[in-house]
Specification:
Helix content is 79%, strand content 0%. The relative contact order is 0.10.
Length: 292
């Protein structure tokens, strides 16, 4: 038991160090630079060096107990900043996925309409009858799929990746992903669960990175070059989020494609030797939703 708690404490310390403390210390360093330089002397390296030296001397003149207390306060502040950023990550994920709520529903509706108009135009061009140039139809199909894999229903690209997966699964298999998913999770193997967790973890990590970008953006109120840092961190997070949600959506579709028959059989809706069809999927959906 002692070794178990020792290992648990070690892992918690590693997570605290990597997920909270180190990114927070980087932010604290930028805040320190912002306080030292401000807007007027934003790029004054000599002023930064002089101010840092004065701060180190002031801290060095303090009693050891005061230095330890100051270090503890710094670590607590950094940990608090890290927890705040991780809380912001949930909001970032909702914005990315188009779950904006009623207060901005009007803006969301406008964006959905705009995305649908672009998608419909590209879809019509991709289905142009002969003798249209096949290359033009192919390029139109690529433009359509770049907007969304299915007709847009969300105001954001990332949101439509997941929404399209749900729509295509319902169209092809009669699946209601929301009600199917808890049952599918029970029938898939551990390796599949690990892949799904890893894909979701990549998306969550990108959202957290975007939260750090917001923190750097707030620092720009004191020091304008922080805008450049925030932009770099934010764009990187956005690109990582797009890549992660694309993989996650593909995995969700793949899990249903591969394990739909297994789920139907486990629910006693598909006899052995019978092929899964959309009617079977609709019966599975009806059972999973309990008629709701």
């Amino acid at each position: 038991m002692t070794s178990f708690f020792g290992e648990l404490g070690k892992r918690l310390a590693e997570k605290w160090l990597s997920l909270l403390l180190l990114p927070s210390l980087l932010l604290a360093a930028v805040v320190g630079v912002a306080v030292a330089l401000g807007h007027a002397s934003a790029l004054d390296g000599a002023l930064l060096a002089g101010t840092a030296e004065a701060w180190f001397r002031a801290v060095g003149a303090l009693p050891v107990a005061s230095q330890v207390l100051l270090l503890g306060v710094l670590l607590l502040a950094c940990s608090g900043a890290g927890l705040l950023v991780r809380a912001l990550a949930g909001g970032v994920a909702r914005v990315w996925l188009g779950s904006w709520g009623h207060r901005v529903s009007r803006l969301g509706d406008l964006l959905v309409a705009r995305r649908r108009a672009r998608w419909d135009a590209a879809d019509a061009a991709s289905a142009a009858p002969d003798p249209a140039d096949p290359r033009l139809r192919l390029r139109a199909a690529l433009r359509r799929n770049a907007i969304a894999p299915a007709r847009p229903t969300r105001p954001t690209w990332m949101g439509d990746q997941l929404a399209a997966a749900e729509a295509r699964l319902h169209h092809q298999h009669g699946a209601d992903l929301e009600s199917w998913w808890p049952r599918l999770w029970l029938v898939v193997d551990d390796s599949t669960r690990s892949e799904l967790r890893a894909a979701r973890a990549l998306f969550d990590a990108a959202a957290v990175q975007a939260g750090w970008a917001l923190a750097y953006l707030a620092t720009a109120l004191l020091w304008w070059p922080a805008v450049l840092i925030a932009a770099g961190v934010g764009v990187s997070a956005w690109l990582r989020g797009r890549a992660a949600v694309r993989v996650h959506a593909a995995l969700l579709e793949s899990v249903v494609d591969v394990h739909r028959s297994t789920l139907a059989r486990r629910l006693d809706l598909l006899p052995e030797g019978q092929t899964f069809d959309r009617e079977t999927g609709l019966r599975v959906t009806d059972l999973c939703r309990k008629g709701a």
